Amino acid sequence: MVRSKEEINSFKLQWYHKNKERLGERLRARAREYYHKNKDLCQIKIKIWREKNRARLLAYSAEQYRANRSKKIAYSRLYYSKNKEKINHLHREWLKENAEHIRRYGKEYRASNRSVVNTRKRGWASKNPDKIRLMGKKQYEKNKDKYKERSRAYYLANREECLARNKKWRQSDVGRSAFKVKKHNRSKRIRETGKISTKDWLVIRNTSPMCLMCGKFVECEKLTLDHIIPLSKGGTHTIENIQPLCFSCNSRKHARVRDNNESSQKRI
């Protein structure tokens, strides 16, 4: 009776399972010996087999993970706790070697799953507002000059639009409330940091009717009081920390610290 190839293979498999315990150790020893003698060839064959059976392997791995999820998680945590430095080092090396691939993959994924990514981001942002605020603050401090330059360039290119938007905001309920809070805080800082009488200010203003920033002569009545070191930067409301500026220079200086003597000399 002639048997087909499938029947022979089935018979061999059945025989192996019946004698697995008896032959297992001997077969494993022979397999290890063959592998060590032909390591490169075995690795090539394994790689080819994995590529051919990729879908099957993935399905099997997923099935095994679902069946033994708790055990695998516990083992992974235990292994990571024992080999933390080694794993982190390997992970960093892998990130360096595959940086371009990661960027390209991330870009493709975001482009094809934009709605999912945005929903996930909004959900995370709603749960972590403090983290976002702290991250934004750190990013701004790190690139302060860059952000200021960008804002200035945008303002110069869209001046009318920015002025209209600011005016509309100041007239809104939120804008009026913010102005009241700012005014209250400024008055509080003035009371806490010092006191200047009207007489002292008039003496300083009338001594020389000139703006110390632009160097132009201005009518005494049009000069405004400016703090050399702004109150928001820790300046005091004392005679030593005030100077007379014209309205436009005072507005332009805002809450910055500038060497006005040098700037006036350059302008003159």
Care to describe what's here?
It contains 15 helices and 2 strands. The protein is rod-shaped. The protein starts with a helix and ends with a helix. A two-stranded antiparallel sheet has the order 1-2. The longest helix has 21 residues, at 173-193. The chain has helices at 5-18, 20-37, 39-52, 54-67, 69-82, 84-97, 99-112, 114-127, 129-142, 144-157, 159-171, 173-193, 198-207, 247-253, 260-267; strands at residues 224-227, 242-245. The model is unreliable at 260-268 (pLDDT under 50). Among the domains are: 89-127; 181-267, DNA Binding (I), subunit A (Orthogonal Bundle). The protein is mainly alpha-helical. 76% of the residues lie in helices and 3% in strands.
Task: Determine and state the CATH class of the domain at 181-267.
Answer: Mainly Alpha
Read across the widest sheet, the strand sequence of neighbours is 1-2
SSE order: HHHHHHHHHHHHHEEHH
Distance between the termini: 116 Å
User: Which regions contain 5 or more consecutive residues with pLDDT less than 50?
Assistant: 260-268
